[in-house]
Design a protein that fits this description.
The complex is a heterotrimer of chains A (about 375), B (about 375) and C (about 350).
Chain A lengths: L1 H8 L11 E6 L15 H10 L38 H9 L4 E6 L11 H20 L5 E6 L5 H12 L4 E7 L12 H9 L4 E4 L17 H21 L2 H4 L5 E4 L6 H15 L10 H8 E4 L11 H9 L4 E2 L12 H4 L6 H15 L3
Parallel strand pairs in A: 1-2, 2-3, 3-4, 4-5, 5-6, 6-7, 7-8
Helix pairs in contact in A: 4-5, 5-6
Chain B lengths: L2 H7 L10 E6 L15 H10 L37 H10 L3 E6 L11 H20 L5 E6 L5 H11 L5 E9 L10 H9 L3 E8 L14 H21 L2 H4 L5 E4 L5 H16 L10 H8 E4 L10 H10 L4 E2 L22 H15 L4
Helix pairs in contact in B: 5-6, 9-10
Chain C lengths: L7 E6 L6 H4 L5 H10 L32 H9 L4 E6 L11 H20 L5 E6 L5 H11 L5 E9 L10 H9 L4 E7 L14 H21 L2 H4 L5 E4 L6 H15 L10 H8 E4 L9 H11 L5 E2 L21 H15 L9
Parallel strand pairs in C: 1-2, 2-3, 3-4, 4-5, 5-6, 6-7, 7-8
The chains are: A alpha/beta (about 375), B alpha/beta (about 375), C alpha/beta (about 350).
């Protein structure tokens, strides 16, 4: 991908004349946790400095159990000249990405997992701080961006309160959950999150990763980062099935649910499977009144990165037909190493309306604020 | 004279002089259909198709095969048929009368509270609470029920607790010792709040959900391990409710630890205090040393009674825990049942016996 | 220096790996490239966050950097003041918990080589445990074979919470290799975090996480005994390091009682668990989760029922005691002598080669 980018630079069209796009997954964040300290009580600063930010994982301070394939999982050219972490220098981000690709709407998903800590109160404090930091340091200086409402999803009443607080602030895009939660997202205890978001007409998004505290597969812990990455597809499917069967979509017809960075190739066959089995055992879930695939078709969106690349590549068009062109939201995942360049992500001849929908208009339907 | 005093002071048919309070009796159903009268058609059908659908590898049994059929004493199978603990007349004869039991607290271990489907769990708990009341308390008021609640659905749990408040058929709320998260975590606080507000103690009985490994290092192989390891989960739950500040937030809350052993009580208290002294800034919600919360809010049921190599160490253990914190339990009709007259290998004074066999339990339960 | 016949032996001391960079010289080219290109670091254990109070006594904490990284500090703060004739280094680092078998093995091997070169070679009072990737028993056995010829390695070290219960046959290759070289297995407080660190899920506080290790020691003891590990390996000794100790008598009573009731399930356990435990298990006595009064401490020690089980340790630089006296007051002097000298020598036979 980095090689392709270097080639691309020689033939970049002048940015302003490009079609403006929406980018639904940008990992922009603070240089370090110290930037969040002004936004949290001193007690938590002391806690972090003494006990660290303990996640449900084996290495101290939330270091990943599966080490990444590049430093901070980032493109090597995304390190700003001042040496700050990728995504932490707004000017550099503007030049390298927002302006270069004419991003008109950018959804920020802060890179540090700042949510499911072992200590729930710490999670609440850090989430609030991260939200306030995003508004002040990203959204106010750069109106093209929308902040995520980061919440400690394992403490749903507190998460709901934070959603309500941030719903009143201009510039928020979606509620952000990580995909590795301690229970499937349809579980009853997560309801306050979905109810509050739906009432405020704010989408709920899940993004790959997080620390569930249990293995990502149903048969234990894999060994490699490669497996860790691939397991996201399974987790996303589990969440979707759970939300359908537990009746989250049935009860909240206005809820919009966005799935970020989990791929989408798995969605058609999952829908066929859910529909088929539900028709056999629907008496176990009498609260459902539509086919699972119908809920998904009307209330779920998926971001495009990492873009599926079947052989031959045209097969992806078939896939998208089955899903629905209106279901996909373009995302670059800047500044990560598996970044999708908008110019290379969909190298097919498409009609203007479809292209605009994929790169911008679908996002406008989801993110109305 | 009140019914309570009546039952406590009635003259027995045996040589036992005290009216004894037994904090752990296990009722069973004669047949699985015994629950049907208390269930709606929807849940009767569900039960037939899916059974209780709990976490675990087998469709119709627990993960670890037991040691005796149904885990029960061989002589406790009622002559009239049915499982041990299912025949109220035989319970009366073999245990209540024989041992002069003034009150016995029922502890059903029938998986109602851990069904994976939360709606099912709520329905099963409500039904099983009714079943306990009608099958046991009504014909035999010495037997008092536990309020079973769906542990992982606090809203439904609170509803059920509130619906049973003030009903003399119910002596306590029962929770299982294995929960989805450590018991002191915030998600369970609505249950504690409802318990305290409605004057119910909580009986924490070994068991609970098997949705995760019983150890931080995985799954044991044998019943001998499974049986013993439950003691460790009891320790962990005690540490959790203390360290999360449950007793600080709910100072009137009483928790009885049932069938989880008690020799570990003092050593866990020492361990908690030792390490809390260094790291108390992490838990500012605690205003007292951990051991003090154990002393004021926790009771230990005796069965299976500890058997130190030097029998006199049992006396030392009771002293360390506090003579007022110990309550007798029989675990009737299980195979490792403790007879109140033969359970301890030390000689207790009359006052000590009275405390363990009766008076301490009166501090915890309301048998009015 | 010390009279070898009365040398104080410290059975648990913690040198600390400053960072992955430190270990690079001890790794193969593939792993050097991997760690550098991928930017992998941060392999400190969640079980001992470097900033947490337990990880370092305040007056031992360096102004900069991680505790335990300086040999000079170890000499000045532990080896000299406590007059240690020998101290056994138990290095706790990320290789022992890695999800990748091969990465775990690479880091463990590097740690063992680094310990030998930077600590054992420079300080004759030091000995070490061979740290192994228990997540890959065959690789762990290979590492034991590789390092055992260096007689300064006196034990095989694993965290107490692993991927399976340690009585499982999965781990036999490790025990076989250890026994072949007459090395005890040391289980140290700490977790691979394959499961929640407690038996009922994820606690909120590190304090609770640390307290809960004691329960995992009890679980593992059950597993080792019930699965007949001590029958299959009749010379194997297992050392419980940093377990707290005072839980032991209550455990023994319960183990005896349960075994009497259900021993038919485990017919290979022919002896009472109490006998097996007293014969095969040793425990470092730091921390000693002691009662506040000496009389009760005396009683608990008495209940343990053997003066051969306890091993002296400072657990430097972990914060387990204040001042100059690692042991709580009131212990019998005869017992202290055995803890400091006789018991460690009996437990770690290799120590006798340089200390007789």
């Amino acid at each position: 991908m980095n090689v392709a980018l270097r080639e691309f630079r020689a033939t970049t069209p002048f940015a302003a004349s490009r079609m403006g796009i929406a980018d639904c997954d940008l990992h922009l964040g603070p240089r370090s946790i110290a930037e969040l300290y002004p936004f949290m009580p001193a007690r938590w600063r002391r806690h972090i400095e003494t006990y660290g930010m303990a996640h449900r994982t084996g290495y101290a301070d939330g270091a990943p159990a599966f080490p990444k394939s590049a430093p901070m999982a980032a493109r090597r050219d995304a390190w700003p000249p001042d040496g700050a972490p990728p995504g932490s220098n707004l000017d550099f981000t503007r030049a390298q990405h927002l302006d270069a690709f004419n991003v008109q709407l950018g959804l920020v998903n802060p890179p540090q997992p700042s949510q499911n800590f072992m200590n729930g109160d710490l999670g609440n404090a850090v989430s609030r701080a991260m939200n306030d930091w995003q508004i002040e340091h990203l959204v106010r200086p750069e109106p093209r961006l929308r902040a995520s409402i980061v919440v400690n999803y394992e403490d749903p009443p507190e998460a709901a309160a934070e959603i309500e607080r941030c719903a009143a602030i201009e510039g928020c895009g979606h509620v952000l959950l990580m995909s590795r939660t301690s229970e499937p997202l349809g579980a009853r205890r997560y309801r306050p999150i979905f109810e509050t978001a739906a009432a405020a007409d704010i989408p709920v998004a899940i993004h790959a990763f997080g620390f569930a505290g249990h293995p990502a597969t149903g048969s234990g812990w894999p060994s490699f980062y490669l497996e860790d990455m691939l397991a996201h597809a399974q987790a996303f499917q589990a969440h979707l099935a759970s939300m359908v069967f537990e009746g989250v979509f049935e009860r909240l017809p206005g809820l919009k649910f966005v799935m970020i960075e989990g791929g989408f190739g798995w969605l058609p066959s999952l829908c066929w499977r859910l529909d088929r089995l539900w028709q056999r055992m629907r008496d176990e879930t009498p609260h459902l009144r539509r086919l699972p695939s119908e809920y998904i078709r009307s209330q779920v969106w998926l971001t495009t990165q990492p873009m599926e690349e079947p052989e031959p590549r045209e097969r992806v068009l078939e896939l998208i037909e089955w899903i629905g062109w209106d279901r996909l939201l373009f995302a670059s995942d800047y500044p990560h190493w598996d970044f999708d360049n908008p110019d290379l992500a969909l190298p097919f001849r498409l009609d203007e309306a479809t292209r605009r929908g994929f790169f911008r208009e679908n996002a406008r339907v989801v993110y109305r604020r | 004279m009140s019914m309570t005093a009546d039952l406590l002071d009635r003259q027995p048919q045996t040589d036992a002089r005290l009216g004894i309070i037994d904090t752990d009796i296990h009722p069973y159903m004669k047949t699985p259909r015994d629950l049907d009268p208390y269930l709606s058609a929807r849940w009767r059908k569900y039960l037939l198709e899916y059974d209780k659908f709990v976490c675990g590898p087998y469709a119709a049994r627990g993960t670890y095969p037991r040691f005796q059929p149904n885990t029960c004493r061989r002589d406790s199978w009622p002559p009239g048929g049915g499982l041990p603990g299912s025949d109220v007349d035989f319970i009366r004869e073999q245990h209540l009368e024989a041992n002069n039991i003034a009150f016995g607290v029922l502890e059903p271990l029938l998986n109602a509270n851990i069904a994976r489907n939360h709606d099912a769990a709520a329905a099963f708990c409500t039904a099983m609470n009714e079943w306990q009341k009608q099958t046991f308390y009504v014909p035999e008021p010495r037997l008092r029920a536990s309020v079973l609640v769906p542990q992982d659905d606090p809203d439904a749990a609170v509803k059920e607790i509130e619906s049973r408040a003030g009903d003399p058929a119910f002596a306590q709320i029962q929770l299982g010792s294995k929960t989805s998260e450590p018991l002191g975590r915030r998600r369970y606080w609505p249950i504690f709040a409802a318990a305290q507000a409605n004057g119910f103690s909580i009986g924490l009985h070994i068991g609970g959900t098997q949705n995760s490994a019983p150890s931080a290092s995985g799954w044991p192989q044998f019943y001998i391990e499974d049986h013993h390891m439950l003691v460790h989960s009891m320790q962990n739950q005690t540490a959790s409710v203390i360290l999360e500040g449950v007793f600080q937030a709910f100072p009137k809350l009483k928790i009885v630890l049932i069938e989880g052993g008690f020799a570990w009580g003092p050593t866990l208290a020492w361990r908690l205090d030792t390490h809390w002294k260094k790291m108390r800034d992490e838990v500012p919600q605690l205003k007292r040393p951990p051991s003090e919360y154990m002393r004021t809010n926790v009771w230990f049921a005796t069965q299976p009674v500890e058997e130190p190599e030097n029998p006199e160490d049992l006396r030392q253990t009771f002293e360390w825990i506090g003579w007022d914190r110990i309550v007798y339990s029989s675990d009737y009709p299980h195979w490792d049942y403790d007879d109140p007259r033969q359970a301890w290998r030390i000689k207790l004074s009359e006052a000590e016996e009275r405390m363990i066999l009766r008076d301490n339990a009166l501090q915890v339960y309301n048998f009015g | 220096m010390n009279d070898p016949a009365s040398a104080v032996i410290d059975c648990d001391i913690h040198p600390s790996v400053p960072s992955v960079k430190t270990l690079l010289p001890y790794m193969s080219e593939f792993w050097q490239e991997s760690f550098v290109a991928r930017g992998i670091d941060g392999l400190d254990l969640q079980s001992y966050p470097p900033g947490a109070p337990i990880s370092c006594r305040p007056d031992w904490r360096p102004d900069k950097g991680k505790p335990g990284t300086s040999l000079d500090a170890m000499r000045a703060q532990a080896l000299d003041p406590f007059r240690l004739g020998v101290a056994i280094c138990n290095t706790l680092y990320g290789g022992q918990i890695a999800v990748s078998e091969t990465m775990g093995a690479a880091v463990c091997s590097a740690v063992n080589d680094w310990i030998a070169a930077e600590w054992l070679d420079k300080e004759p009072r030091l000995r070490a445990s061979i740290v192994v990737p228990a997540q890959a028993p065959l690789l762990a056995a290979e590492e034991i074979e590789r390092k055992a010829p260096d007689r300064r390695f006196v034990q095989v070290l694993m965290p107490v919470a692993c991927e399976m219960m340690l009585g499982r046959s999965y781990y036999w290759p490790i025990y076989e290799a250890a026994v072949r070289h007459d090395l005890p297995i040391g289980l140290h407080a700490g977790s691979m975090y394959r499961y929640a660190p407690t038996s009922t899920g994820w606690p909120s506080h590190f304090l609770h996480d640390y307290v809960a290790h004691q329960q995992t020691f009890e679980d593992q003891l059950l597993s080792l005994v019930s699965n007949g590990i001590f029958v299959k390996f009749p010379t194997l000794r297992v050392v419980f390091i940093e377990s707290g100790v005072t839980w032991l008598p209550g455990f023994i009573w319960r183990a005896i009682k349960t075994w009497r009731g259900v021993r038919a399930e485990v017919p290979w356990v022919k002896q009472s668990p109490a006998e097996i435990i007293r014969d095969r298990i040793r425990l470092t006595a730091q921390p000693l989760d002691a009662p506040p009064d000496a009389k009760s401490l005396d009683r608990i020690i008495d209940q343990i029922g053997s003066d051969e089980m306890l091993l002296f340790a400072t657990d430097y630089p972990h914060w387990q005691f204040d001042g100059d006296e690692p042991l709580p007051p009131g212990l019998n002097p005869g017992l202290i002598r055995k803890m400091r000298h006789d018991n460690p020598l009996a437990t770690y036979p290799r120590l006798k080669e340089t200390l007789q």
